[in-house]
Write a structure and sequence with these properties.
Length: about 425
């Protein structure tokens, strides 16, 4: 039986290649039958050319036209250089910070150390809106720390070239932040220079011949609010003398709500250099925060010498008790500058005006009173109800600045009426 089976296997084996060859030839014959000949040559030598169907002719013409256009097409030329509009086109890259990264320690140093900020010339900005305002005004970024890539992609791409981008955990930003609800992005910027900044056109268009001088302002929240009022009123410039809190401290930046990038701020000035930043013929007015003494002077119940609205001077130099101390031994002149007091709502903006705002604790300095005297300025009184010590510095500054804006607007309206 085994022999018979073996013989049958041997006889069937050659048939397999024949079946495979037949199947392959059959497929070729089918494809050949489907083809339509281009030319037919008869035995007599006659040649008949077969016409292609219209659709095939169109396809061939389109193919030939495409190949011809491809041969005649000039080499690919790169479009003129344009500013990349997306993150991918700009080819930006970012790093991921790991625990113990030394780059992160510089953030807290900038936040807490004013000497470091002044020495290194760097500041820290937090929040998408504040960072966007800074970039728009021309501030130069150095490093960005962010927790989500979307926060960086929201910023202008052309402003991010050459900037170190570092992705960190949100918990780390939360540890650094002073905000109740951190926004997940911080930026280290070069300390802005008011000369190189680009302030908004609307702000420049509404700028007034009105300046603000901050004297001995120590509270960050007050200074930030004052800067915000100065920008809102249209001040042309804000001067900060030595003794004021740093304008670029995080708490001041937070209270300013972007005012730092809307109005020029000149920081850390000596009183001797303040006149260099004032327009010609500027009159300096001092905000009076001792209403009772000023009201007494206005009613002729006090000496013509004038009272300095500072408890330090009032404590040691009361005119009734120590009249001899109010005279300078070297010059024989009054030690206190003679400044007339007037109500804040009377006209005091006939010339370019600068308003001095003092701190609540230390008040205005003697140098500010001397500058006001030299420029023909006065003390501006904001009357308060008897028994009230004084107004908040930020509130007093807002009242005076917007009153100055009102007076200037009224003057412009009167001039336009006279011309018509």
């Amino acid at each position: 039986m085994a022999v018979v089976a073996k013989g049958m296997w041997c006889t069937m084996r050659p048939l397999l290649p024949v079946v495979q060859i037949w199947d392959l030839d059959a497929r070729r014959w089918v494809r050949t039958l489907r083809r339509s000949p281009v030319k037919v040559v008869f035995p007599s030598g006659q040649v008949v050319e077969r016409k292609r169907p219209p659709e095939k002719q169109l396809r061939k013409a389109a193919s030939e036209a495409s190949s011809l256009a491809q041969r005649q097409k000039p080499p690919h030329q790169t479009a003129p250089s344009q500013t990349p509009s997306t993150w991918e086109e700009a080819g930006l890259r970012y790093d991921k910070a790991f625990p113990g990264d030394r780059r992160l320690s510089s953030v807290m140093t900038i936040v807490k150390s004013r000497p470091f900020r002044e020495k290194q010339g760097k500041i820290l900005l937090e929040g998408r809106r504040l960072i966007a305002d800074a970039l728009k005004a021309g501030a130069v970024p150095k490093v960005f720390f962010f927790s989500r890539l979307e926060y960086i992609k929201e910023l202008p791409v052309d402003k991010l070239k050459g900037v170190s981008l570092i992705k960190v955990k949100f918990e780390d930003i939360k540890d650094w932040s002073d905000l109740v609800a951190p926004q997940g992005i911080m930026g280290i910027f070069a300390k802005p220079d008011h000369v190189r900044m680009t302030y908004p056109e609307t702000q420049l268009h509404h700028s007034l011949p009105l300046l603000l001088i901050c004297d001995n302002l120590r509270d960050p929240g007050n200074l930030g609010t004052i800067l915000r009022s100065a920008a809102g009123a249209g001040c042309s410039k804000v001067l900060l003398t030595k003794g004021c809190v740093d304008a670029w401290e995080p708490k001041v930046l937070r209270a300013g709500m972007g005012a730092h990038f809307q109005v020029p701020i000149i920081n850390n000035l000596e009183w001797e250099t303040v006149p260099n930043y004032l327009p010609p013929d500027t009159r300096v007015y001092v905000a009076d925060n001792c209403g009772l003494y000023a009201q007494a002077q206005m009613s002729n119940k006090a000496s013509d010498q004038g009272w300095v609205c500072d408890r330090r001077f009032l404590k040691f130099h009361k005119f009734e008790e120590e009249e001899e101390d109010c005279v300078d031994i070297r010059t024989g002149k009054d030690w206190f500058p003679e400044l007339e007091v007037q109500s804040y709502d009377l006209d005091w903006t006939e010339a370019p005006a600068a308003v001095v705002i003092g701190g609540e604790t230390h008040g205005v300095s003697l140098e500010s009173l001397q500058l006001a005297e030299n420029t023909g300025g006065k003390r501006l009184l904001i009357p308060v109800v008897p028994g009230v010590d004084s107004l908040n510095s930020a509130m007093a500054a807002s009242i005076l600045l917007f009153e100055g804006k009102r007076q200037l607007r009224v003057r412009v309206e009167h001039l336009s009426r006279d011309r018509n």
